[in-house]
Structure formats: structure tokens, C-alpha cells
Amino acid sequence: MRPFSARTTAPTAAERVRSILAAAHSMTVVSDGIHTEVRRLDGAGAMGHFHLHAPFEDAEAQTATRVPVRLELTDIAPTPVRDRVRARVKVTGLLAAPYDAEAAKSTCMEFGQAVLEDAQGRTYVTLHALEATDLDPIATGEAGMLTHLVDDHSDVVPLLLRLVRPHPDSGMLRALPVAMDRYGVTLRLEYPHTHHDVRLPFKTPVTDIDQAGPQIHALLTTARRLSHTGHLLS
After folding, report:
1. What would the pLDDT profile of 111-139 be if each residue is shown by its tens digit?
2. CA–CA distance from 44 to each of 26, 109, 181 (Å)?
3. Which of 32, 102, 115, 175 has the fewest CB atoms lying closer than 10 Å?
4. d(C-alpha 173, C-alpha 196), whole Å
């Protein structure tokens, strides 16, 4: 578990991979040359279908025939932002037999490596890092929370924009929340030919999903205070 600190304002690669595995609604399983689309993960995420474990160390297991497997997942923003693919995750490993979608719900998978690919590049994540990381309490509720903000609270984003520094210039077409995690909210600012993301960190990391609402309200309170005291950025 990573200790929180005042400098922690964004999730690590391991935290992001674990969140994507937990919140995924679908994935592609590539095993024995066959691509299988698993479209309904029933709220259990990828790890509800695969149990990851360290490579076997005994000689018998090492010499046994095993089948390479690759899990492919795409993290898509739940809001209608430009370029909705936020990240891609690939988890590779070995199975005792070719993957069978009709078999038992949880399949044991000997872990090889996990790779996170996003706008920052490619990051490799070990099994130890995944196991040492607590699941973000917002991960499985993020989509519902963000769509609720956009659909039912249209005044929220203009308020949050008051916290963005430097203040967005007049060329911005629109701004929408693109992500939320235990450390804060990310807004995507869209311009005619480009876009960029801005993180608004919570005062303290969320340890329970019930804390997310109060943390968002705290950001909005700060934004309103800036307006009332005349400290808006030009």
C-alpha cells in the first residue's frame, strides 16, 4: 500500500492498472491463437474471471505444457469528451490449458507482466506492485459519478474551471470531466485543434467512496470563494 502524502496528487501506474481491471465491463482474451471477446464481466471486473498468481517455482510445474494468454482492456472515458480512450492495458501470462469462456468463472493465470499505455507512454507493472496497491474506492463508481455530474449538474464544470491555473483562454471550446480517482478530478479542456487535461486534486485522498461527494463540494466551495473575493485569474 502506498502511503498518502501532501505530494500525492495522481495515481501510480499500478493503481491505474488495478482500477482498470476492476472496473472493466469487457475485455479480449487471446489464447492459443484465438481471440475471445468477453463482453459482460457482471461487475466483477477482469479479476473476477482470472486469478493472477506468481510463476510456479517447482520443477514439475516449470516443465509442464502451458499456454500463453493475453488480456487486453481499453479504458474509455464515460463522458462524451474528445479522444475517449484514456488508456490500454495488456496483461500477459500462462494458463494450464487454452482459455475456455464456458469453463469455471475464475481461471488461474500465471502472471507475466502488465503494461499500461496512455498519453504519457508505456509503463510496465509487476505483480508485486499490483498486490501492494489498494483498489481505488472510486474505481467502480467513477463512470456513474462523472455522468451524473455532466447530466444533472451542468453548473459544476464552469465552477471547477475557476480553479484551473492558468485560466483557460477564450479559444477553449468546452471542458468536461474526463476522470476521477481517489486523488482528484481531471478536466479535459478542448480547443479547435487540440486538447489537454488538468487535474484538480482533492485536499486529501479519498479512502471511502462516500467521501467523494464532500471532496467535490470542497472544490466547489473554493471555486465560489475565489469568485466572491475577486481572485479569478485573467
Report:
1. 999 999 999 999 999 999 999 999 999 99
2. 10, 16, 19
3. 102
4. 12
Q: Are 227 and 160 in contact (CB under 8 A)?
A: no
- Cβ contact 26:39 at 8 Å: yes
Q: Which of 18-22, 52-56, 168-172 has the highest mean pLDDT?
A: 18-22
Cell numbers representing residue 63 in the block: 516443465
CA distance 56 to 139: 31
Helix (H, G, I), strand (E, B) or coil at 33: coil
C-alpha–C-alpha distance, residues 184 and 199, integer Å: 7
β-pairing verdict for 107-118 and 50-53: parallel
Model confidence, pTM: 0.88
Please report, for residues 128, 174, 184, 195, 210, the alpha-carbon distance to residue 160 in angstroms, rounded to integers and kept in the order given: 37, 13, 12, 17, 20
